[in-house]
Structure formats: C-alpha cells, structure tokens
Amino acid sequence: MKNYFTPNLLLTCLAALFFVMLGSNRPAQAESQSYGCYKLSGRVTDSSNNPIKGVRVEVWEKKDNGYISATSTNVKGEFSFAHDPCGPLFLEVTAPLKTQLASAIVENIPGTEARNILIGMKHGYLVEGRVTSRDGKPVKGIVIKAFATGHNFKSSERVHGGGAVETSKKGYYKMVLTPGEKTFVLLNQNLSEYASYSSHAATITHDQMVVDFQIPYVGELTK
Length: 223
Fold this sequence. Notes:
By secondary structure, the protein is mainly beta. The chain folds into 2 domains: about 110 residues, Sandwich (Immunoglobulin-like); about 100 residues, Immunoglobulin-like. Helices cover about 10% and strands about 40% of the residues. The protein has 2 helices and 16 strands. It has a 5-stranded antiparallel beta sheet with strand order 3-2-5-6-10, with no helix packed on it. Strands 8, 12, 15 and 16 form a 4-stranded mixed beta sheet that branches. A hairpin with a 4-residue loop joins strand 2 and strand 3. The radius of gyration is 20 Å and the shape is globular.
C-alpha cells in the first residue's frame, strides 16, 4: 500500500487554509468548512481482479464511530475521499446484492496521511432474516453489524463477510456474508423499549440462509 503524502500536499493544504481565513470576515463559518487536506482513495475488484462498479464505500472515524462520507465506485472500480485531519479511519465496502460479493471492512487507516487502498472482494452467501421482539412484533430501524467470530483487527487488515445493514419496516434484512462463524451485533438507537445492544452468533453454511433474531427488551440482558 503506497503512501502518497508529500511536502507539496502539505503546502497545498496550508495555502488553502490561509486563503480561506484571509477571505472570511466570520471565522466561525470558516472553521466549519472542509479543506480536504488528505486524500483517501482506492480501487475495488472481485477475486479475478476485475473492477466493480457501483460498490458503496463509507468512511468512518473510529474514535467516535463518526460518519464522514460515502461514495460509489466508478466504472474502473475507483473511489476517492478528501477529508480533514482526523483520528484512525475505517471503510465499510458493500457491493450490490446481485453481485453476491461479501461486504468488507478495512480497519486502522491513518487519518493524517494520504492513502491508496486496493480492496479485493470475495464471493459469499445471501443471508436474510427478520428481527422481532419476544412477542413476535417486527422491529424496524435496527442496525445489524456482522463480522467473523474471533477475528483480530490488524493494520490494513481486510475483514471480509462483515458490514452492516438496517432492518426494514417489517423487520427484514439481507446481506452477503462469507461462510463460517459470525458474530451479529444488533444496535438500537431509537426505540426505548428495546435493549440498545445485543450480540448473537450464527454459522453461515449455505446460500439463501435464513437467520432470524429476537431483540431483547430493556433490562432482559442483565437478569
């Protein structure tokens, strides 16, 4: 993975900052602007090294789990973000379901350096299911995050078969995962009657596998 950070890039960033501050009579507004001093770019391919168009790439800051931006790959499988200096980043990479390519997560990307990253996506199985309450009521708006059980994040590691999805109005979800043991985390930020966090395990063994979840009510996990 190449490092494209150069002294010229730093000078360009400082120059951009200087002219924005010089031309503004209201410093508070200038501080809210994004100068985009660092570039995070890359290319997404399949297992045969063919570029993949239309892959959604989201970039997050790890420190506060803060969303920064999202884009889709072009016909050459390329993507690019410009961002301010920040803490370590991670990417969530999700191909269209019809490709049957498993999502990937790229961890521990420095937020104060320019980086170019190659992401090779793997084929996986379509997993679908439903999130309901203990009483069988479908639950909308639950974020389901999946990752390989027992994995250890390392610098520049690509974690395939993970990613995130949100349940629909009737509690349904779909995602593509590689086979093997997975940990599913259910995150609830809007519904006060249910637990905000719960963890579930499942082993992915075949295509079109159904994996349903029951979200606990508040207090159930501590009993």
